[in-house]
Design goal:
The protein is an alpha/beta fold and about 250 residues long. It folds into 2 domains: about 1-170, Carbamate kinase; about 170-250, Acetylglutamate kinase-like (Carbamate kinase), CATH 3.40.1160. It is built from 8 helices and 17 strands. The strands form 7 sheets. It has a 4-stranded mixed beta sheet with strand order 12-16-17-15. The chain has a 3-stranded parallel beta sheet with strand order 1-9-4. A hairpin with a 5-residue loop joins strand 2 and strand 3. Helix 2 packs across helix 3 (about 55-75), helix 5 (about 155-165) packs parallel to helix 7 and helix 6 runs antiparallel to helix 7. The longest helix has 25 residues, at about 55-75.
């Protein structure tokens, strides 16, 4: 309830686009129907799903279907005019399919594997989201991209949000998570510069590293500030915007 009231208050002043995750639900559904999920680690330590053809079909079904509509349904139940789309619709997210992936295997060795259906975002089309926002809707975007050969591609939700924020010329991007912000040696960092964020990438845990990386990408795309904060505090959106909670990443 608190989050929905806070979103409504924010919408009185600003437009908002929501990008959701849902990886855990993808894993749950995939394994329930007998498709084992494989996770890989990049040389920089970032862990991600290996997306073969079967997995990208399940990923699309769960993200654009179940997760997106669950978020939209909840927002509608709170009288927030949500409109669900995926990054594939009107090519909101365009990506280049990764042909090869460099990974670190279980023995700590570098290996090159076939890229599967994972994409690197190369372009965004913010026009449909702007139209929806101007019409009074809150776009809710599922992180799926369309490839150069019109294939469906898995893209990371935090990084998709970063690129969209840049395309939309957003002033701020907020990454809501289940921790208070960027914590190093047990201490919450209230504010960090772009340069500090880059040096922290290897020092923060799995999951948080993607949010720090996405913050860096958002700032490079022209967003003024990125805020990593908890979705479980009182008024999570307003509190983050007012810098009362979380970690604020700026150009410094």
């Amino acid at each position: 309830r608190n989050l929905s009231d806070d979103i409504k208050e924010t919408l009185k002043r600003d437009s908002m686009v929501i990008v959701h995750g849902g990886g855990d639900e993808v894993t749950r559904v995939a394994e329930k129907i007998g498709k084992k999920q494989v996770f890989i680690t990049s040389p920089s330590g970032i862990r991600s799903r290996y997306t073969d053809y079967e997995t990208v079909q399940i990923y699309t079904m769960v993200m654009a279907g179940k997760v997106n509509k669950t978020v939209v349904r909840w927002l509608l139940s709170e009288n927030i005019p949500a409109f669900g789309v995926s990054g594939v619709d009107a090519a909101i997210l365009r990506a280049r399919r990764k042909k090869r992936l460099l990974i670190i295997d279980e023995r700590g060795r570098r290996r090159i594997i076939e890229g599967g259906f994972t994409g690197k975002i190369i372009d965004v089309n913010p026009a449909p989201l702007n139209l929806l926002a101007l019409s009074g809707y809150v776009p809710v975007v599922a992180p799926i991209a369309v490839g150069e050969e019109h294939e469906l591609l898995n893209v990371d939700s935090d990084r998709a949000a970063a690129y969209l924020a840049g395309g939309l010329r957003a002033e701020s991007i907020i990454f809501l998570t289940d921790v208070r912000g960027v914590i190093v040696n047990g201490k919450l960092l209230k504010e960090i510069s772009l340069e500090e964020a880059e040096s922290l990438l290897r020092k923060v845990g799995p999951g948080m590293d993607k949010k720090v990386l996405a913050s860096i990408e958002a700032l490079r795309a022209g967003v003024k500030e990125a805020i990593i904060s908890s979705g479980f505090v009182e008024n999570p959106v307003t509190s983050a915007m007012e810098h009362k909670v979380g970690t604020v990443v700026t150009l410094g």
